[in-house]
Write a structure and sequence with these properties.
By secondary structure, the chain is α+β, with helices and mostly antiparallel strands. It contains seven helices and four strands; from the N terminus they run H-H-H-H-E-H-H-E-E-E-H. The chain has a four-stranded mixed β-sheet, with helices on one face. A hairpin with a 2-residue loop joins strand 3 and strand 4.
Length: 166
Amino acid sequence: MSTECKFNGTAQQEKELMDVIAQYKNEQGALMPIMQRAQDIYGYLPIEVQEVIADNLNIPLSQVYGVATFYSQFALKPKGKYKIGVCMGTACYVKGSAKVLEKIQDTLGIGMKETTEDGLFSIEDTRCLGCCGLAPVMMINDDVYGMVTPEQVGGILDKYRKESQK
């Protein structure tokens, strides 16, 4: 299961964030672009980063947190190095994508929107990937796998485990 992680921002990341805030601070509608750039810098939006944004924009933390939790593009927990998505569109679902997803979750010991303890894998919500002819489809980062069966899952994940050891 995914565990809470300690925030470990660097001085370089903090400088980048402060530069972004300075760039947008006086513009109307600055919150969303600042939050998007902050997530690019840190990979997610930990509460510590949300506090910096709120303090520097002179807005309540609840406003930043509200935006972060409302929009699905924002992540409050770190994502894995390898982001897994299994298409749950109609064609993929009918051809067994739910069983593929279940096998991934069982193999990794995590659920949707969770990250493995080693930080390698996370599972994200995915809808139609536009590859209906290859159903069921899964993606790992930008790599697309078609006609996936639950039996293939272990081998596919092993490829990324080996890649991360290089």
